[in-house]
Design a protein that fits this description.
Length: 341
């Protein structure tokens, strides 16, 4: 089973023309499955319903997405922020649909220029037709399959965005497998709390499964885990291993950082210059962490975080940097490295 998660900004109507509505919370999801020659291929659309009023649902969708879909109804500041968001998150594969309201008009050439200026020149444009869009997204899945398989071979990283207790089952955590494979009975670390637990059972799309792979949205029944170790930015990984017999060490898949060097690539649409003392927000792997700039040296910032920022050791994704009280809210993307305390 191969899953392509698609971060979408657009209408519920457009999403439903492509896939069937599933979960409907702050972030709505829509799923379409096709099975060919025994292989199941899934499109999973992730749509932040409360954007643009709230930025974090969009950033969470981008964290989970491996491709993008944008419906354009007007050329305005919101469109500019959307393009910056996708570019900052490194989502350079996607499909755009120009769909102005009845009686309205959008200049396609102007929109295509904006996509190129934002760094999304590789996106394609398609008509407002659910079947055509579904085919385009399956083409993207084919193009991204090698990358998706490489993610499945990486060390396990599962950010959690929901947790609750279920009668007869116990503590359940739900999140996206961003990298690696998770198996029933795997021992897990709950970061940044440094708690532990065991994967008693797994569910993907309401089916019990022995293994969840990169791209899957998984429900994990946890044994021997404490609920207060699950916070708003929990990431599940395998514990570090020290094998004295072979003199080998396998570190955890993520590195907690309280102070970081942040090499910022500012959006081409952003005119604001960050300064010492400014408060910023970092989004990566469904985390949303507040930091304060301690010093600035050109495009490199030294930042102290209010809570540990967990950065993957293997192929770390872009970190999106934002300022919620600024206009525009998105600064751009960054590579983040650990600074000693």
């Amino acid at each position: 089973m191969v899953v392509l998660n698609i971060a979408m900004v657009g209408s519920d109507e457009l999403a439903k023309s492509i896939a069937k509505a599933a979960d409907q919370r702050d972030v709505h999801t829509y799923v379409h499955k096709e099975t060919t020659s025994g292989e199941t291929r899934i499109l999973s659309i992730i749509r932040p319903a409360k954007y643009p009023e709230r930025l974090r649902p969009l950033l969470n969708a981008l964290s989970a997405g491996q491709a993008g879909l944008v419906e354009i109804t007007a050329v305005d500041a919101t469109l500019g922020e959307v393009l910056v968001a996708f570019a900052s998150a490194g989502i350079d594969h996607g499909v755009a649909v120009i769909n102005p309201p009845q009686g309205g008009w959008v200049d396609e050439d102007q929109v295509k220029m904006l996509f190129k200026q934002a760094g999304l020149g590789g996106w394609t444009f398609a008509p407002n037709d659910g079947l055509v869009l579904r085919d385009r997204l399956y083409d993207l899945l084919d193009e991204r399959q090698a990358h998706l398989e490489s993610l499945a071979a990486a060390p396990l990283v599962v950010p959690v965005d929901q947790h609750f207790n279920v009668k007869g089952i116990g503590l359940v955590a739900i999140g996206y497998v961003q990298a690696g494979e998770l198996n029933v009975h795997d021992e897990l670390m709950l970061l940044p709390a440094n708690g532990t637990g065991n994967a008693k059972s797994l569910q993907v799309m309401d089916d019990d499964v022995p293994t969840a792979r990169a791209g899957d949205r998984v429900g994990i029944a946890l044994r021997n885990a404490k609920e207060d170790h699950l916070t708003g930015s929990t990431v599940l990984v395998r514990p570090a291993v020290d094998d004295k017999r072979t003199n080998t060490h396998r570190p955890m898949a993520v590195q907690p950082q309280m102070r970081s060097s942040v090499a910022l690539t500012t959006s081409p649409f952003q005119k604001r210059v960050l300064a010492e003392g400014d408060v910023i927000h970092a989004s990566v792997d469904l985390q949303f962490v507040v930091g304060r700039i301690q010093s600035v040296n050109g495009t490199v910032l030294e930042v102290a975080w209010d809570a540990p920022l967990l950065i993957r050791e293997h192929q770390p994704p872009n970190v999106v940097i934002a300022q919620l009280d600024a206009k525009p809210r998105l600064m751009g993307s960054a590579a983040v490295t650990l600074l000693d305390a």
